């Protein structure tokens, strides 16, 4: 069967259909009451199934509504009530979510229509085998909808540049996202039907097998997936600090988790935007080398590293032994030729390492000229999407609610901000505007952020900051805030998404905190 849902129901409904997971409860009982009432009221009309299933669920909805209405408004809903409702909504071995496009309204009008859902349910002969959830409109354009989501939804988040498509998951925690790979309405209908009919008629087929057969059947989908480049953005590891010594191993597992959710066939490039070390002390080099070895052994692209102010000596130079430990690249630009992407690496620590300068940064005229010349020397450089990597932030970093303002900032305010700034930020912004860069990735402040450098193009230049990937930052609650950013670029669909994720609980999951989507 299929059920249409609205914004507030998305995560709640997914949990309701999974009896293995505890139901998330609302802090406000009145809101929970209203959500349940709205869901039950629509259950008789906003779902599509076989005639017998529709009649059964209409009875379930009517009975549950009557019992709900006998309760005082705003009183907490008892867990027993929800568990009983779950039993009546048994959906079979799998569930699916129709995922709309981020940008194509014509496609969304189609895939979010009742007619599309009804044609799938009634023509593909699977009315009682599983359940398909369908948004009533493109609620997924709102980035906050998919924050702190039902676990399977992470697989859709990992492929946002390939939307629209369908996300499948099972009670055994298996999940897979299958993109439609086309904006042609007839192709979308055909491919959605293929997914459902094959899942229903192939007894015992896993979602991984379904995904493999789907890619084999539709070469266009496989070509789209292979065009995706994912930048795994880390920063401010501060190896040698207490935080790094206790959390670096956990960060490695989180990185493996992210890679497991990414689509096969794409390119993944790990990036570190500085402060690999807490200070350039030789006793930390071995641990830094082991972490860099870990990145090299993941079976993805070699890491791209830029220096932070903690990585270099007071005279502004990198120790040769540390350069060897980090396998520090000599080339200022990493060219990903197949995807037509260039990663320009700026050393923002030039001429800014005296005691008076504190943690300020500077790139310097000579470096701008050098990188500009390297771009000019690249054949067909105008076809490449350019992304800048540096340690220092080129625009101010807002202080989030969870960040406790240090005493020094409370006392000295704007003066303290100047001690960590990029001194030639205006020159840098002029450079990336003139060269039409698509994005800037940075670290330094230990606060994850999404920002923008204004240009004549309304899209501007995305600025993506990574906090500390080992959580070397204080929070108001005392919880950790270990940050990893996932930037996905799809040259076929001309889309880029930047997803900020963080581990907030020690040993907990990496959860999305915010997201940026743009056309290229």
What does this 3D model show about the protein?
The chain is α/β, with parallel strands linked by helices. It has 17 helices and 18 strands. It has helices spanning 10-16, 29-42, 51-69, 79-88, 105-111, 114-123, 153-157, 185-201, 207-217, 219-226, 242-261, 285-296, 320-325, 365-377, 407-412, 414-418, 425-434, and strands at residues 2-5, 47-48, 94-99, 130-135, 165-170, 175-179, 228-234, 267-273, 304-306, 333-336, 341-345, 385-389, 439-442, 449-453, 461-465, 482-490, 495-503, 510-519. The strands form three sheets. A six-stranded mixed sheet has the order 2-1-4-3-5-6. The longest helix is centred in the middle third of the chain and has 20 residues, at 242-261. The two termini are 38 Å apart. Mean pLDDT is 83; it is low at 142-148 and 352-358.
Secondary structure layout:
Layout: E1 2-5, H1 10-16, H2 29-42, E2 47-48, H3 51-69, H4 79-88, E3 94-99, H5 105-111, H6 114-123, E4 130-135, H7 153-157, E5 165-170, E6 175-179, H8 185-201, H9 207-217, H10 219-226, E7 228-234, H11 242-261, E8 267-273, H12 285-296, E9 304-306, H13 320-325, E10 333-336, E11 341-345, H14 365-377, E12 385-389, H15 407-412, H16 414-418, H17 425-434, E13 439-442, E14 449-453, E15 461-465, E16 482-490, E17 495-503, E18 510-519
Parallel strand pairs: 1-4, 3-4, 7-8, 8-9, 11-12, 12-13, 13-15
Antiparallel strand pairs: 1-2, 3-5, 5-6, 7-16, 10-11, 14-15, 16-17, 17-18
Helix pairs in contact: 2-3, 9-10
């Amino acid at each position: 069967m299929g059920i249409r849902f609205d914004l507030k129901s998305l995560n709640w409904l997914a949990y309701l259909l999974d009896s293995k997971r505890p139901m998330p409860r609302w802090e406000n009982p009145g809101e929970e009451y209203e959500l349940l009432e709205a869901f039950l009221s629509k259950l008789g009309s906003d779902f599509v199934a076989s005639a017998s299933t529709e009649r059964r669920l209409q009875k379930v909805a009517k009975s549950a509504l009557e019992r709900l209405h006998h309760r005082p408004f705003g009183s907490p809903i008892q867990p027993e009530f929800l568990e009983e409702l779950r039993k009546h909504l048994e959906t079979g071995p799998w569930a699916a979510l129709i995922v709309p496009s981020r940008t194509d309204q014509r496609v969304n009008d189609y895939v979010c229509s009742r007619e599309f859902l009804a044609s799938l349910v009634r023509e593909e002969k699977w009315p009682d085998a599983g359940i398909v959830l369908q948004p009533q409109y493109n609620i997924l354009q709102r980035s906050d909808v998919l924050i702190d989501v039902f676990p399977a939804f992470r697989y859709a988040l990992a492929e946002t540049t390939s939307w629209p498509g369908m996300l499948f998951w099972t009670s055994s925690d298996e999940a897979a996202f299958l993109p439609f790979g086309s904006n042609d309405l007839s192709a979308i209908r055909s491919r959605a039907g293929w997914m459902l009919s094959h899942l229903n008629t192939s007894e015992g087929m896993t979602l991984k097998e379904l995904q493999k057969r789907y890619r084999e059947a539709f070469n266009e989908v496989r070509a789209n997936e292979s065009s995706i480049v994912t930048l795994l953005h880390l920063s401010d590891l501060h190896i040698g600090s207490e935080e790094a010594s206790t959390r670096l191993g956990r960060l490695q597992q989180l990185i493996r988790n992210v890679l497991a959710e990414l689509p096969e066939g794409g390119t993944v490039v790990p990036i570190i935007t500085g402060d690999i070390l807490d200070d350039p002390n030789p006793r930390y080099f071995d641990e830094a080398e082991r972490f860099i070895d870990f990145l090299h052994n993941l079976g993805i692209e070699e890491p791209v590293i830029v220096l932070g102010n903690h990585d270099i000596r007071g005279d502004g130079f990198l120790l040769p032994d540390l350069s060897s430990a980090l396998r520090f690249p000599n080339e200022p630009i990493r060219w990903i030729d197949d995807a037509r992407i260039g990663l320009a690496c700026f050393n923002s620590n030039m001429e800014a390492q005296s005691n008076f300068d504190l943690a300020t940064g500077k790139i310097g005229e000579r470096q701008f000229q050098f990188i500009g010349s390297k771009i000019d020397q690249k054949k067909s450089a105008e076809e490449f999407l350019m992304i800048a990597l540096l340690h220092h932030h080129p625009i101010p970093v807002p202080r989030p609610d969870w960040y406790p303002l240090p005493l020094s900032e409370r006392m000295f305010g704007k003066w303290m901000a100047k001690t960590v700034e990029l001194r030639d930020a205006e020159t840098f912004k002029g450079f990336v505007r003139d060269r039409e860069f698509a994005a800037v990735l940075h670290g330094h402040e230990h606060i994850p952020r999404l920002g923008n450098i204004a240009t004549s193009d309304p899209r501007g230049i995305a600025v993506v900051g990574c906090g500390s990937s080992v959580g070397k930052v204080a929070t108001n609650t005392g919880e950790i805030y270990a940050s990893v950013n996932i930037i996905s670029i799809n040259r076929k669909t001309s889309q880029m998404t930047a997803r900020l994720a963080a581990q907030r609980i020690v040993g907990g999951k990496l959860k999305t905190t915010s997201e940026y989507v743009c056309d290229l």
